[in-house]
Every structure is written in structure tokens, then in C-alpha cells.
Design brief:
Blueprint (H helix, E strand, L loop, with lengths): L2 E6 L8 E6 L1 H5 L11 E5 L5 E6 L18 E6 H21 L2
Antiparallel strand pairs: 1-4, 2-3, 2-5
């Protein structure tokens, strides 16, 4: 097994997205990954860019993910600006909570 998957990015260049490998439940719920960094496959930052992943049982690099035959894998794309907005909102809520404690 040495197949490849190519994720094609936006042709307009207006969308910056992050591609993540997620579990089946997260994919069906259209929910972001529990561990944001550990699940990141790649990011689309430029017009007509693409992300290519190789499906290998034994990764060639330390931070590559492994893929086994006869297993199902799920991917989801998230708008980067939306994720930053959500992160910022959560950060503000955390600060409000911390400063409200007497």
C-alpha cells in the first residue's frame, strides 16, 4: 500500500482551510478534531494549492500518520479564520472566568 490522496484547495484563493484526519463520529457530526495539532494533515494557503498525503503503514517521517489496509479514514476541512475566531472567543471567555473568581 503506497497510494496517495490529493486534496485540491480553493481556486479563488479566498478560503484558507486546514485539513484534519478525524474519527468517524467527528466526521459525521461535522465537528473539528479533539486534538487539533495532532490531526493536522495540511493547510491550504494559496490559490490552486494542493495537499498530498501518502498512505503508508510505516511512516517515513516521525510526524507522519500511518494508514492500514481495510481501515476507514475520515477527513474534514475547517476554515482557518473561523477556527481562529472560535479560539479567540474561548480565550476571552476563559479570561472573563479567571478574572471573575474572587
Amino acid at each position: 500500500m503506497n497510494d496517495r490522496i490529493r486534496f485540491s484547495c480553493s481556486t479563488s484563493g479566498t478560503e484558507q482551510t486546514a485539513i484534519h484526519r478525524v474519527n468517524e463520529r467527528e466526521a459525521l457530526d461535522c465537528r473539528g478534531p479533539a486534538k487539533f495539532i495532532n490531526s493536522l494533515i495540511g493547510t491550504c494557503m494559496k490559490t490552486n494549492d494542493s495537499i498530498i498525503i501518502r498512505l503508508r503503514e510505516i511512516p517515513m517521517l516521525p510526524n507522519e500518520m500511518s494508514y492500514k489496509p481495510d481501515h476507514d479514514y475520515f477527513f474534514i476541512s475547517l476554515f482557518i479564520l473561523f477556527c481562529l475566531f472560535v479560539f479567540f472567543c474561548l480565550f476571552v471567555l476563559l479570561l472573563l472566568f479567571l478574572f471573575s473568581i474572587d
